[in-house]
Specification:
The structure holds two protein chains of two kinds. Chain A is mostly helical. Chain A contains two helices and no strands. Chain A starts with a helix and ends with a helix. Chain B has two domains: 114 residues, Aspartate Aminotransferase, domain 1 (Alpha-Beta Complex); 224 residues, Type I PLP-dependent aspartate aminotransferase-like (Major domain) (Aspartate Aminotransferase, domain 2). In chain B, α4 packs parallel to α5 and α12 runs parallel beside α15. Classes of the chains: A mainly alpha, B alpha/beta.
Chain lengths: 53, 393
């Protein structure tokens, strides 16, 4: 889960690199970013459940 | 944001379009960053090192396959990973150059090639570039003849950069190699700006050794690189140790002295390996990189007084520019003097041009998207406009 979350953040980081300096996302990048952020939220929620139980 | 005491988190490539001439091809892929996160610990690739205990035999992660793939991709017979291209140069000179031996370099050779020759006790003999800053086969033949006349023997090795670091010009390696081989001089192909950037076929070029830079052109962390050779040379270059301790009688298996045993034992290697599939793919699309470079070059050429010092049309994205007649004129009276250009570029979200440089400078557009190339072009023109330089539209 730690890697999954970190890797989702890495993919987001790559979007920032590809769209620098304006970081304006076209439709395709927006869909990609939304998917990554949703996945990140899921991974963080799972981590909370596992580590803080 | 800090990642350690006094160490700011580096966000250069997230916040800016980075056209630093030596950084463009070494920007990591997402997979390389992920690999580094997992393999950052010291000897991380050694978890599954088994006899015969050598890096290029490790199967998990698939380092053994990576070595084979790299050699095959370059159309060479054998490859090793090295801590930077310079260590590849050093391994070759240490094997083939004796004290006082003449070695062919060029007037555009990188300093590390000179140091590799110096370290082995060799004597640097430079093939001069012509007026267009190109190294030719004819100049190579003339230099070999000159060295033979003066020393009574031909050079023992030739370093030829396919694309040089000063102008980003492309030199006819195949023709130069053909000449060198007529004198039985082995050729080291320096692919620091080509291996990982554009297709390289070592045997077609006649290379005896191919050296590439991981951190300059293979989207890998520093220090990393590759050294590939032919079966003919592999036995000598990658000879195994024969030393034995007189007290302990210890011997060291199949470790290779020129590699100092194992070379890249962690994050550098897995970073290079993780990027490799992307690198293999990206070299097929170098025409796109040149198209993006042209967008920027056209914008620069539209600014009166700006000259492209590299060969034109461009055959590589590393480009040397002379703005003495344009941006430097502004620097004479600007309150920030020569620093205004890099400062203005930063305001446009662009970095990588040496602060203070307004006369002769280099940039490398490798890896920019079309949109980023258009942004760069617009930024140069806007800065020219803002400072009263004439732009031909």
């Amino acid at each position: 889960m730690v890697f999954s979350a970190t890797y989702a953040l890495t993919d987001l980081r790559m979007i920032l690199r590809e769209t620098a300096p304006s970081h304006e996302l076209d439709a395709e990048k927006r869909v990609q970013a939304e998917r990554l952020l949703d996945n990140l939220e899921r991974q963080v929620a799972a981590l909370k459940q596992e580590m803080l139980k | 944001m800090r990642c350690g005491a006094g160490i700011e988190a580096r966000q250069v490539n997230e916040l800016f379009i980075n056209i630093d001439p030596i950084q463009a091809g070494g920007r990591l892929t997402g997979d390389a960053i992920k690999a580094i996160i997992a393999y950052g610990d010291g000897y991380s690739v050694c978890d599954n090192c088994r006899k015969p205990n050598r890096l290029d035999y490790i199967a998990k992660p698939p380092i053994v396959d990576f070595h084979k793939d790299v050699a095959s991709w370059l159309n060479m017979d054998t490859a090793r990973v090295v801590p930077g291209a310079r260590r590849g140069f050093q391994a070759v000179t240490h094997t083939y150059v004796q004290k006082g031996d003449p070695v062919l370099l060029t007037s555009l050779s990188h300093y590390t090639e000179f140091l590799a020759v110096e370290g082995a006790g060799g004597v640097a003999r430079e093939i001069p570039a012509n007026a267009e800053h190109i190294i030719t086969a004819d100049a190579t033949a003339a230099k070999i003849e000159e060295v033979q006349r003066e020393t009574g023997k031909p050079p023992v090795l030739a370093f030829i950069d396919h694309v040089d670091y000063q102008f980003g010009n492309m030199h006819d390696v195949a023709a130069i190699t053909k000449v060198a081989h007529q004198y039985d001089i082995p050729v080291l192909y320096n692919g620091a700006y080509t291996v990982g950037i554009l297709p390289v076929d070592g045997k077609s070029l006649g290379a005896d050794f191919v050296v590439g830079s991981g951190h300059k052109s293979m989207a890998a962390p520093a220090p990393s690189g590759i050294l590939a050779t032919t079966t003919e040379h592999a036995q000598q270059l990658f000879r195994t140790t024969t030393i034995e301790g007189d007290v302990t009688k210890r011997r060291f298996g199949i470790k290779e002295p020129e590699m100092m045993g194992c070379t890249l034992m962690g994050a550098t290697l897995v970073g290079m390996m993780a990027s490799f599939p992307h690198v293999k793919e990206r070299v097929k699309h170098f025409d796109l990189e040149l198209a993006h470079n042209k967008i920027i070059i056209d914008a620069l050429r539209s600014i009166d007084g700006t000259k492209i010092l590299s060969e034109y049309p461009r055959r590589h994205t590393l480009t040397r520019v002379d703005t003495t007649g344009s941006f430097d004129r502004v620097a004479e009276t600007h309150k920030k003097r020569g620093f205004y250009l890099s400062s203005a570029l930063a305001d446009h979200g662009v970095t990588g041009v040496i602060p203070g440089a307004t006369r002769i400078w280099k940039f490398n557009s490798y890896g920019t998207t079309k949109r980023q190339a258009e942004h760069l072009a617009a930024a140069f023109v806007a800065i020219a406009d803002e400072n009263g330089l004439r732009v031909t539209r």
